[in-house]
Amino acid sequence: MLAYEYQSDGVMRVVERDDPRPQEGELLIDVAAAGICGTDLKIARGEHRFYPPGTTRVPGHETVGVVAENRSGDDRFAPGTPVAVAPNIACGHCRPCRRGLGNLCENYESVGLTFDGGFASQLLIPAAAVANGNVMVVPDGLDLSIASLTEPIAAVVRGLRPLTVTSDDTLLICGAGPIGLIALLVAKHRGVGQVIVSQTSPHRRRIAKQLGADHTINPRERDMSEQVMELTDGAGADAIMVATPVGQVFTDALRSAAKGARVSFFAGLPSGKGEIPLDANLIHYGELIVTGSTANTNADNEEALALLASQPDLFAPLITASFPLEEADRAFEAAKGGEHLKVLIEPRR
Ligand SMILES: [Zn+2]
Ligand SMILES: [Zn+2]
Predict the structure, then answer these.
(1) Which of 65, 175, 240, 300 is close enough to 244 for a disulfide, judged by CB 3.0 to 4.6 Å?
(2) pLDDT reported for residue 308
(3) Which ligand is closest to the CA of 111, given by its number?
């Protein structure tokens, strides 16, 4: 089979590999589509903690496909069944797992991170993942390219949950990358009062507007919090999602918050750069609830897949390019540039 491999010299290459052979309990999938996300670009740059120097592995964790061979013993996965794969395999017995936080599992395994992932013509799903419920049958009629958005939508569904947005609320989204734009679509679909998107790139601001943002602002032009205060009659935003890895934005987000606002540091900062100035009195006097979000659980993925199946046209505009596996280098180039939103690798194209 073909695979797009991160190799021990730190370069990614399309290579021919032996076809994987599923053992007892495992599932073999013919990959239909795999989305490229920021994590994959980080891997390609040699900066991911799960890809230390010397690693040879296939990334890709936003994977959908069709069952090629089923040795799992679970008859929902007959050959030919379309499936989406939730990437994070929780151990089920560590402390976070026992508390329902499988996304924070201490013995975490993950497709495309700790073992070979979906940038390949075939993907082998380990028995533990099948047993854990990581493989989900794609509902009838849902296009597999669109179904590949399940994992990023799951991340957003999880990130939005503690923000509890209502029709009374102004939601501020900082950053209009795929994650920020998915948050915009989901929040508008759920009937949030208004959404303000803060983003430096005019191209991305235009897209945010097309996808339903009530206001877009440029934080380079003028202080973000000043603009948010103006757009909310001095009240500030009731819910804030920081979806860009820039420390200054985290600081400014708190200054843009309304009394009693919920703030999610959805994005992480580069490792070693997590310490930033924050005015604790804004949290104290405003009774702000500040939280974060990391990865996602199988339940988040199930919720995302159901949402996608009910609203495929809502999310379809997020996919702006698709490449066959042979052109994976070009796909990564496209994903790196600022022009595209979601770029897919589709091996069966
Ligand atoms: Zn991802
Ligand atoms: Zn665990």
Answers:
(1) 175
(2) 97
(3) 1
